[in-house]
Amino acid sequence: MRESSVSFCPVPTEQQPIHEYQQLKDSWFFRWAKLELRNYGLKLAWVWGLSWLIAGPVAAASFAPHQHLVQFILAGGAGAGVFLILVLLRLYLGWSYVCDRLSQETIGYEESGWYDGQTWTKPPEVLSRDRLIVSYQVQPILQRLQRTLGIIAILIISGSLLWNLS
């Protein structure tokens, strides 16, 4: 008897897009993007706050807080923001990679090493399932991360304007 197209997949389990999605979803770090809004914001606030441990002393060395308080706060906030942006970019790139793998009709994989790359065309049932996951699970996460990066861009622009006014 012939195996159904859904059950037969030559791609090694760890390279299957659905498995990569599951690993990302269960990952300690990448799971942050799936948290409810309040907890998501708290995680990002912690990253930004802890980044002040590095950015604060650098900003204080450049702008003495007792003489140039506004510049110190803006420089320290921007410096801490760099770490936050890097964290958000890592989240975005990880989810974007999985989104691309799930959306593709054919996927590349390696059986035993870099030298024997193969491709596999997903059967219609698998492709439909993967694209549903993208539509209802992954796209909202990517949109949240894009909105967050947009808010940070607005804060950076506002900080730049405030810097020029002070």
TrEMBL record:
<keyword id="KW-0812">Transmembrane</keyword>
<feature type="transmembrane region" description="Helical">
    <location>
        <begin position="148"/>
        <end position="165"/>
    </location>
</feature>
<feature type="transmembrane region" description="Helical">
    <location>
        <begin position="44"/>
        <end position="63"/>
    </location>
</feature>
<keyword id="KW-0472">Membrane</keyword>
<keyword id="KW-1133">Transmembrane helix</keyword>
<protein>
    <recommendedName>
        <fullName>Ycf36 protein</fullName>
    </recommendedName>
</protein>
<feature type="transmembrane region" description="Helical">
    <location>
        <begin position="69"/>
        <end position="93"/>
    </location>
</feature>
<dbReference type="Pfam" id="PF06799">
    <property type="entry name" value="CGLD27-like"/>
</dbReference>
<dbReference type="InterPro" id="IPR009631">
    <property type="entry name" value="CGLD27-like"/>
</dbReference>
